[in-house]
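Protocol check, entry for the methods section draft. Step 1: assemble the input record (protein sequence plus ligand SMILES). Step 2: submit for complex structure prediction. Step 3: store the structure tokens unaltered in the notebook. Ligand used here: zinc ion. Step 1 record:
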Amino acid sequence: MFKNESAAERLVKLVFPEKCISCGCALDSENRSEEPLLAQYFCEKCGSDVPRMTKRHKKATIPLVYDGSVKRAMLNLKFSSDISSVPFFSRELEREIRTTLYGEHFDILTCVPATKRSLAERGYNQSRLIAEGMKLDIETDFTLLRKNKVTQTQHLLDAEQRQKNIASAYEMNAGRNVSGKRILLVDDILTTGSTCDACALVLRLAGAKSVTAVCVAKAPDK
Ligand SMILES: [Zn+2]
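Step 3, stored output:
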């Protein structure tokens, strides 16, 4: 009966029985999205506004656009302690990896780290939850990297200073060896790509052979 469902999906169903991950309305046979890939997660109205990427991005593999119902579901995850969207985001990212990166091999699956402060406030790192929800046959280490400080004054800096500021926030955790490893790096939302760039740089400097970034959603083009 639970065929093809991960433990995380079953847990989410127990805790959040059948509601739209965007607007939160109860899902039933009347109002559920008719799209087969969305029916489990969205009502008809929200399911009609799930924007997908239509072209490849040069910095990362990304299935969704951070807009409409995708944005609402992500905001619920980031700011309302509502993890019911995790199985949807994990499945979308996993599908994208299996198609776009078909044939590529990775040694370690990791994620962009959160600061201790945001972990304490939120209780989880949403990028890690999404990465953990994927059913890929790759060794995982979600504490490969750490983020040291909150980069709050970014808007006062020019582009170059901003990139340096971001890069200095990330470090390898002690005792990790990524020498010669091919890393698959998961992030939630791609805006400028500077977070992925910074993490990739740290991993490459530590000896990683390659770093491939995947993000759930990209901020829409202005
Ligand atoms: Zn809805």
